[in-house]
Write a structure and sequence with these properties.
The protein is of the alpha/beta class. 52% of the residues lie in helices and 11% in strands. The chain has helices at residues 9-12, 16-26, 43-49, 51-57, 72-75, 77-93, 113-127, 134-144, 160-175, 191-209, and strands spanning 2-7, 32-37, 63-66, 97-101, 130-132. The protein has a five-stranded parallel β-sheet with strand order 2-1-3-4-5, sandwiched between helices. InterPro entries: SGNH_hydro_sf (IPR036514).
């Protein structure tokens, strides 16, 4: 599978694309990837810059993952929907499919998760995109476990554990594979913590699929 990621530091931090590829490789799936990222960028800024559209048009990608700026879906869901719609037209023309990377609320604003989830889910439903529900899984994980910390010290970006949880959700939602038992070293995490995240992520995603 060839994946193009379009986003900002929520995608690039702790090498999320590389971690997804490593997890997929452990399940016998070869994933190649490219990341187009700019600090704090929104999808509209990526559209206006043109680099992402040119890369999509070059063809060859199976999936294009879109990550909106972290607070914009709360402040202006209509703007997000417009941007996703414009990206979808280009992605569809290139013969690829769209995935939306649903991100998480900041540590001191957990109530924002509902608006984030609603905005991403609405956009995914409108264009027929795959929803990668990282923020939903993140929220449920925090409600159950005190450790490890998923947020970095700035209360916004992902700590290594947060990025690893995100990668596990990608493996489940995008590649339909179970991360439990994948015994690969994870930078910044001990083996026990990594396995806890894998098991919790699989359990939470199973509950979400079954409506629990």
């Amino acid at each position: 599978m060839r994946i193009l990621y379009v986003g900002n530091s929520f995608t690039s931090r702790n090498n999320l694309p590389g971690t997804v590829a490593a997890l997929a490789g452990a399940r016998g799936i070869e994933v190649t990837h490219r990341l187009i990222s700019a600090g704090g960028a929104s999808l509209r800024q990526h559209l206006n810059a043109g680099k992402a559209l040119a890369e999509i048009a070059s063809g060859g990608y199976d999936v294009v993952v879109l990550q909106e700026q972290s607070t914009l879906p709360v402040k202006s869901p209509a703007r997000m929907r417009d941007s996703v719609r414009d990206f979808q037209a280009a992605i569809e023309a290139a013969g690829a499919r769209t995935a939306l990377y649903l991100t998480w609320a900041r540590r001191n604003q957990p109530e924002a998760q509902q608006a984030l989830t609603t905005a991403y889910a609405a956009s995914a439903a409108e264009v027929g995109a795959t929803l990668v529900p990282v923020g939903l899984v993140w929220e449920r994980f925090l409600a159950t476990y005190e450790e490890p910390a998923l947020h970095d010290a700035d209360n916004s970006h992902p700590a290594p554990a947060g990025s690893y949880l995100a990668a596990c959700v990608f493996l489940i939602a995008l590649l339909e594979e179970n991360p439990v038992g994948i015994d690969l070293p994870v930078k910044g995490l001990d083996a026990g913590t990594a396995e806890l995240i894998r098991r919790a992520t699989w359990s939470i995603c199973t509950d979400l699929v079954e409506g629990r």
